[in-house]
Design a protein that fits this description.
Blueprint: H1 2-30, H2 32-52, E1 57-65, H3 77-85, H4 99-106, H5 110-120, H6 123-127, E2 129-133, E3 138-141, E4 146-147, E5 152-153, H7 167-177, E6 178-182, E7 189-195, H8 198-237, H9 241-263, E8 269-273, H10 286-312
Antiparallel strand pairs: 1-7, 1-8, 2-3, 4-5, 6-7
Helix pairs in contact: 2-10, 5-7, 8-9
């Protein structure tokens, strides 16, 4: 008897569930015109947005870390550190960041990018450009932000940021356009730039590679020359033959650093695949924007119809 009641309850539940599904589809079908209207609005909006967004081009250079001499004050630290400490000389030690990692961080640093923007006068291309005219190869400048004739900034001040872009704004805008990454398997480094103009993107990549090589070379030259001066001053006051031998070797290592820095233009990164002017845009993905906009409109339309039917009940 109990089994018969349970079976009847299961049949009734299945019937109710079937009725609910039929009612659901009937509700959706009844609101098909509203769903179609909402989907159409979103589809048209997605198409307009896709057409409005300007093309963005991406240029990229593939670089290999240049071999570095493992000498200098740290090169002989393990061998002669104890002896040098007797004369009050610190040779340093391990734990230092390798030059490739350091260069990758420097190229994304505020100081480097600020100097980079100032040196190449990139303020207008960063903050006022809104597109690129392919026929004239000219950037389209937003006249509400910058007046090209009078060379004056016209934007509205906001908080502590005035009419002219601040250093922090420029660096933030630059960081949104550049990408620096290193492949874990090969160790190769890629530097890429995205911009409205494919020619600007390629030029900026070339400048970044050139400037980071020069920056790291200048740093090492300054440090090596300073080390040589220091070691020579210690050598003049040292009478211990063994320690003099250590100092001569250290001076020799620093002299090698100076020599390599002066003769190599590609000091930190060697170009494996140079940047080129891209022929095809990198984004926006207009077809994807249209599809996603249409799907979003359809889902929203179904949701509105179901909510409206639920409220009426």
């Amino acid at each position: 008897m109990n089994q018969t009641k349970q079976l009847a309850a299961d049949v009734n539940f299945a019937a109710d569930d079937e009725i609910d599904l039929r009612e659901l589809f009937a509700t959706i079908w009844a609101g098909k015109w509203l769903i179609t209207a909402i989907t159409s609005v979103f589809a048209i909006g997605a198409v307009c947005l896709a057409l409005y967004l300007p093309n963005i081009y991406k240029s990229e250079a593939l670089l290999a870390p240049a071999s570095q001499e493992q000498g200098g004050l740290g090169g002989l630290a393990g061998q002669f550190g104890g002896l040098a400490s007797l004369a009050g000389i610190s040779l340093g030690g391990g734990g230092a960041v390798d030059n490739t990692t350091l260069a990758m961080e420097v190229v994304q640093s505020r100081t480097f990018l600020s100097n980079f923007i100032e040196q190449h006068q990139l303020q207008v291309a960063l903050m006022a450009a809104k597109g690129w005219d392919e026929s004239t190869d000219q950037l389209l400048i937003d006249e509400e932000v910058y007046n090209g004739s009078s060379k004056q900034w016209l934007r509205e001040p906001e908080g502590r940021r005035g009419v002219e872009p601040t250093e922090q704004e420029l660096v933030e805008a630059m960081l949104e356009l550049i990408t620096v990454s290193q492949a874990k398997d090969s160790g190769l480094v890629s530097i890429s730039v995205e911009h409205f103009s494919p020619f600007v993107a390629k030029q900026w990549v070339d400048w970044l590679v050139q400037d980071i090589n020069f920056e790291m070379k200048t740093r090492d030259l300054k440090e090596a020359n300073k080390s040589i001066t220091y070691l020579e001053s210690k050598l003049a006051t040292t009478k211990i033959a063994e320690l003099q031998n250590v100092l001569y070797q250290l001076i020799e290592e620093q002299s090698k650093t100076v020599m390599f820095a002066e003769v190599r233009d590609e000091y930190i990164f060697k170009t494996v695949d140079a940047a080129v002017v891209p022929e095809l845009k990198a984004k926006p993905k207009r077809a994807l924007i249209c599809v996603l906009g249409t799907l979003l409109g359809g889902m929203l339309g179904v949701f509105v119809v179901l909510i409206r039917a639920f409220v009426r009940k």
